[in-house]
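2024-03-11 09:14:02 DEBUG pipeline.ingest accepted 1 chain
2024-03-11 09:14:02 DEBUG pipeline.ingest length=218
2024-03-11 09:14:03 DEBUG pipeline.predict start
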Amino acid sequence: MSLTERLASNIGIKSRRILNIDENKEKIIVYGAISLLQIVWSIGWTAILGLIFGVFYEAMIFSIIISALRKYSGGVHASAPNICVIIGTSISVGFGIIIDKVLINVDISMTIIVGIVCILVSMIIVIKKAPVDSPKKPITNPVIKQRFKLSSIILICFYMLCMIVLLELYIVYGNLMYFKAFQCIALGVLWQAITLTSSGAVVLNKFDAGLKYILGGN
């Protein structure tokens, strides 16, 4: 059991004793604690590498977007927390570089179309797939699963409203940061939705296997 899992397990045990809750609620707390601890660790490394590569703003927005949605939607899980952090950090910084160096030159009309497609595709995937829980910490209660699905849908709707506001701000003020934030949200939501699919799982599992081989030396 990793350090993150041990900490989350301890949080669940102590919560059960203090709050006098049942085993199902304890599992929810443990599931949430694991996600939260990994989010904090991943965002920390994303901030550091984002500064190094000059894409702090883009990488942080992308990371926060996918982390917040992942909390409710779940997604494919890495074989170890440290590998999860490496993959998450690499993806956030990588997309940050792409947005800063490449997509910034895309026409606004095309960006709007791509943004709409990203949100629609993400919503369809989330409705069909979310939540995708961990095999080690499965969510068996159908009510809780439905709650996570609904929270994911609401969050995507909130992201969509943020994109509309950012677009209006960009049109009025012409600040490229608003334009980049729009792209970060659109691609971040789409990427997180893809991790809920079998195809996304295959790709990430290959990355996982490669990193496991490199870090483990076998």
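2024-03-11 09:14:41 DEBUG pipeline.report Residues 142-173 form the longest helix (32 residues).
2024-03-11 09:14:41 DEBUG pipeline.predict end
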